[in-house]
Amino acid sequence: MGSIWLISIALAGFFLAYLFYGRFLIKRFRIDPARPTPAHTMTDGIDYVPAKAPVLLGHHFASIAGASPIIGPITAAIFGWIPVFLWIVLGSIFIGGVHDFSAIVASVRHRGKSIGEIIHEHVGDLGKKLFLIFAWSTLILVIAVFTILVAKTFVMVPAAATSSVFFLLLAVLFGMSIYRLQLPLGIASVIGVALLLGGVWLGLVVPVKLSINVWIALLLVYITIASVTPVWILLQPRDYLNSFLLYILVAGASIGIIIGNPKIQLGAYLGFSTNLGYLFPILFVTVACGAISGFHSLVGSGTTSKQLDKETDARIVGYGGMLMEGLLAVVALIAAAAITSGKYNEFIGNGGGGPIALFSASVGNFISKLGIPANVGTTFSALAVSAFALTSLDTATRLARFSFQEFFEKEEESKPSILNKNRYIATGVGVVVAGALAFSGRWRAIWPIFGSANQLLAAMALLAVTVWLTELKIKHAFVFYPMIFMFAVTFSALVILMISNFKNQHFLLMGIAFVLFVVAVVLAVLAFKGLREKREAATAR
Q1: How many domains would you assign to the chain?
Q2: Global pTM?
Q3: Is the peptide bond before 69 cis (omega within 30 degrees of 0)?
Q4: pLDDT tier at 2 (50, 70, 90 boundaries)?
C-alpha cells in the first residue's frame, strides 16, 4: 500500500472537518465576532495583547506542536499503522479539535482566565485549587523534560543552537517592527521568513558547541526572561516566525509523500499487547498530542485567549491548529511506516537516535522528491523540531507562572497577595523546581507518568467546559462523551502504571501515579456533583 492514500485521506478529512464540524462548533458556542474579547477589554501590554489571526495562529500552533506529535505516533507505531492512523484522524477531529476550541472560547468568556478559574466559578474553590496544583505539576514536568530535550539536541546538532539563538534576536526585531514601527505584516513576514531561512544556513556554517549542563543553565535563564517579558516582544513574534518552519516542513513532507508515494512497510495491526503495553489504554496516551493533549488547553486558556482579536478567530486558531497538528502526526506515522521493521527497531532501540532521528531521516527522504538533497532535508527537519521544542518550553514556563499566580489569587482586591501579583516570584519558583529536576536527571523516572497526566488534563478541561455549558443550557454531548472516554483512558493507564511500577519496585513512580489518580478522582467527583446539581436546577425551572 502506498503512503499517498494515508496523507490524502487525512488531508480530505481535516479539510471537511474544518468546514462542517468547525461551523457546527461556531453555532453551538454562539460565537459572536462583535463581542469584545479580553485582549481588548483587559489590554495590559504584557499578557493581554490583541493579535491578528495569522500571527496568533503561528504563536498557538508553534506552542502546541512541540516534539510530542512526532514522538508519540512513531512510538505508538508498534501497535500497527491502522489503529494509530484512525486515532490521529478521528481523535483530532472529534476530540482534540473540540477540546482546543472549547478551551479557548471558555477562557475568552471568563476574562482570559485559565481552565482552573472556570472550574472555580462552576465547581468551587477546592476544585480550582486541585486543578491548578495538577496543572502546575504537569507543567513543571514539561519544563524539565523539554529543557533536557532541547539541551541534548543542541549538543547533538550544534547548528540548531546557533539557529535558535539567531531566531530569538530576529523575533525581537520582528516584534518591534510590527508593534512599534507599524511595518505591514505581509512585508515584515516576507523579510522575517527570508532571514529565518538564513538563520538555518548560519547554524550550519557557525555551529555553537557547549556542554549539556551549560545549555541547561542557559535555557533556564532564557525561559525566566521569556516568561516575564511582554508577549509582543518575544513570545508572539518568535512563535509566529517559527511556525513557518513547521508549515514548510509539513508542506514539503506532504508533497514529497504524494510525489514519491513511499510504500507502507509497517504491519497494519501488530497485536493488542506489545512491549509498550496494551492497545487500550496505552495507545491513546502514547500518541498524546497527535490527537488530543491537555497541554493545549493550558496554552489555549493561558496565552492564546489573552491575544484573541475576535471570537471567530478561535475556529482557525483552536480547531484549525489542532487539525494541522494532526496532519503533522500523520506525517510522523508515515515516517515510521515507510521503513522496514528492522530499521524501525534500530532507530527506536537503545543508542539508535530515537523517534526524532527517525523522523528527520525519513522526512529528509520525502523532501528529496522535491529535488532537495536528502541530507539538507534531514538537517532542516532536525533544526525545525528543536525550534518547536524550544517554543513549547518557554510557553510552558509562562503557563506555569499563570497557574501559580491564579492559585494564590484572592477575591478581595483590597488584600493583594505578592505571590499572585509578582510575576518574577511566580516564574522563579517554577524554574527553580524544574531546573532542579532537570539537573538531577529524575525526569527520566517521571517521564512514563507524563503521558497520562497530560491526557488527564484534557479530560479535566472537557469536564470544566461540560459544566459551564450545562449552566448556559447549551447541549453538550459533543464534549461530554469525549470527556468520558478520556477519563476512562487516563484512569486505566494510571492504574496499569501503579501496578507495573509496584511489581518493579519503582515506588516513586507508583507514588506519583497514585497522587495524580487521587487528585483527579476527587476533582471529577466534585465536578460531576456540580454537573448533577445544575441539571436538577435546570429541570426544576
Answers
A1: 1
A2: 0.86
A3: no
A4: confident
Cβ-count burial of 143 within 10 angstroms (0-12 exposed, 13-18 middle, 19+ buried)? buried
Where would I find the beta strands (DSSP E) of 107-223?
none
Beta-carbon contacts of 5 under 8 Å, excluding residues fewer than 6 positions away, are none
Q: What is the pLDDT of residue 156?
A: 76
Cβ(248)–Cβ(194) under 8 Å?
A: no
Q: Provide the grid cell at 286.
A: 502514547
Mean pLDDT of the residues in the chain:
86
User: Is 69 a member of any domain?
Assistant: no
The residue among 55, 25, 38 whose CA lies nearest residue 312 is 25
Ranking 186-190, 372-376, 442-446 by mean pLDDT, the lowest is 442-446
Q: In the predicted model, is pLDDT for residue 387 greater than 80?
A: no
CATH number of the domain bearing residue 151: 1.20.1740
Could you give the CA distance from residue 479 to residue 66 in angstroms, rounded to a whole number? Answer: 25
Any domain includes 300 = no
pLDDT for 97: 97
Return the number of other C-beta atoms located less than 10 Å from residue 201's C-beta.
Answer: 11
The b-or-e profile of 440-451 (16+ CB within 10 A means b, else e) is: eeebeebebbbb
**In the predicted structure, residue 31 carries a pLDDT above the cut 70:** yes
Q: Which residue has the cell 484573541?
A: 308
**C-alpha 61, offset from chain centre:** 8
Q: CB-based contacts of 90: which residues, under 8 Å, 6+ apart?
A: 291
Residue 109 lies in a domain: yes
Q: Identify the pLDDT of residue 68.
A: 81
Q: Give 312-340 pLDDT, tens digit per residue.
A: 999 999 999 999 999 999 999 999 999 87
The boundaries of the domain holding residue 517 are 3-35+45-50+80-257+270-295+307-540
Q: Which helix (H) or strand (E) holds 201?
A: helix 185-205
Task: Assign 273 to helix, strand or coil.
Answer: strand
CB atoms within 10 A of CB 273: 11
Angle between helix 507-540 and helix 443-471 axes, rounded to 10 deg: 0
Within-domain flag for 127: yes
- Reported as a pLDDT band with limits 50, 70 and 90, residue 477 is very high
